[in-house]
Amino acid sequence: MTVGIWVLGDQLWQHQAALASDPTASVILVESRQHSTERRYHRQKLVLVWSAMRHFAAELESAGRTVTYKIADDFAAPLRQWIKQQKITELRVMEPADRPFARFLSTLALPCPLTLVPNNHFLWSVDEFKQWADGRKRLLMESFYREGRKRYGVLMEGATPIGDQWNYDKENRKPPPKNKQQGINPPSPQWFNPDDITQQVMQTVAELDTFGNLEPFGWAVTRSQALHVLDYFINVRLATFGPYQDAMVTGEDTLWHALLSPYLNIGLLQPLEVIQAAETAYKQQNLPLNSVEGFIRQVLGWREYMRGLYSYVDEDYPQGNYFNHQHPLPDFFWTGDTPMNCLHQSIDQAKRTGYNHHIQRLMILSNFALIAGLSPQAVEAWFHAAFIDAYDWVMQTNVIGMGLFADGGTLATKPYAASANYVNRMSDYCKGCHYNPKTRTGERACPFNFFYWDFLARHRDILQSQGRMNFILRNLDKMSMEEYAAIRDNAREWHAQQPS
Known about the structure:
The protein has three domains: 3-117, Rossmann fold (3-Layer(aba) Sandwich); 126-312, Serine Threonine Protein Phosphatase 5, Tetratricopeptide repeat (Alpha Horseshoe), CATH 1.25.40; 319-496, DNA Cyclobutane Dipyrimidine Photolyase, subunit A, domain 3, CATH 1.10.579. The protein contains 22 helices and seven strands. The chain has helices spanning 17-21, 33-36, 43-62, 76-86, 99-107, 126-133, 141-152, 196-206, 223-237, 261-266, 271-285, 289-312, 332-335, 341-353, 358-371, 376-386, 392-403, 420-426, 447-458, 460-463, 470-473, 481-496; strands at 3-6, 26-32, 67-72, 90-94, 114-117, 156-157, 160-161. Strands 3-2-1-4-5 form a five-stranded parallel sheet, with helices on both faces. It has a two-stranded antiparallel sheet with strand order 6-7. Strand 6 and strand 7 form a beta hairpin. Helix 11 (271-285) packs antiparallel against helix 12 and helix 12 (289-312) crosses helix 17. The longest helix has 24 residues, at 289-312. The model has no long low-confidence stretch (mean pLDDT 95).
């Protein structure tokens, strides 16, 4: 038997399960131009993945592997050719995290059997998450996170969480200082100059008709670089990460965020080593517990929970549309050209970097899409294309579930809908905006306001079944019929003015 191993572009770890299954087997990596054009992927996402793949192939060769690297129109042709040339009798692939690619693998006609090796890029296997989830009335992230803390002994003293609290969210939601003299001065992120391999990839990507800015490109493309980013975050940014992790500040694209998700999602970093690095720093450097716990929650809790839930829900989950929202995606999601400064800032940043932090994604982009009644599928498709860390397993639960409540509450306990008041409190975006964040109707009324109240009124009957919404819904009773009519008219006029 001659085993061959196909390494996918988001599985770039020398100890990934397929490579570990046969340390001497020949390896193939394929850059598929057809796959890259299935959506308008951000240029920096394409550069990251293709450059990281090429660097990884070189690392495997240095480690003694026989490696074939193909750049082709599709996956099938180079795979068939390689299998025949190498006389491969079994092709092994680590199970893809994304369901659409798993379905694609099942349709591949190859001259040898294809064996899927269980994925080891996550702490919880699909089966382990299913065992945890089966029989529960609610699949709450908090319950899952606590189980993970106990399971891996992270920030624990026996059966008790260190500090006698499971989370420190209340300490980690500070708005940015309103007085500039108080200052908010995060350290610069760790970027890298593109090497020759990356520059070659950039030349290729520059010719593609897709989304986002190509330069400046500073992302890590090797494991050693990604480890350097991790070390920099732990030693320079983590101590002050917690308090302002939800804040949004003009001109500060990354604040104290780790910028590790792109590397975790393609295998350059592994979740347990990231978690352990943060916990070790807490113990050795006496770092603030709220910052360390807040970061670990994102990796051990949120990331694992989202992937587990993605694998657990039915395959029709991506078609969810609980509120039956049908409005098309506005053109400004691709251009950033909108007088709503919060959306302009977030989309412009995404265009420049391929990155927004979690509150920009949830409470600016997704919040607006939810209250404005945009199609969940159109919004998810944009998220998948626009962000450097986006994959199907990431975006379905994060956008369809968390951001848009299109799953009807499978994931979240209430819709994350908010007016301009939230944006004004947690950012400085409203200061430079054409609209007035305190006005609900009229020419200068912030769309976040009239869309928010229109959303609550349009869906009052079904929102009443979400117990946490009833207090807010009672505010509708205080609104005059005239004001609600003006709010409804503002919402309809806004949609009517969008290019068709």
